[in-house]
Amino acid sequence: MFFLIFNLKYFKILYGIGEFPHDICIGLRQIKEVKMQQEKEKTKTITIKVCMGSSCFARGNAANLDFIENYIKEHGLDAKIEVIGSRCENNCAVGPNVIIDGENCEAASPVRLESILKKYL
Ligand code: FES
Question: 57 CB under 6 A from ligand 1?
Answer without folding.
Answer: no
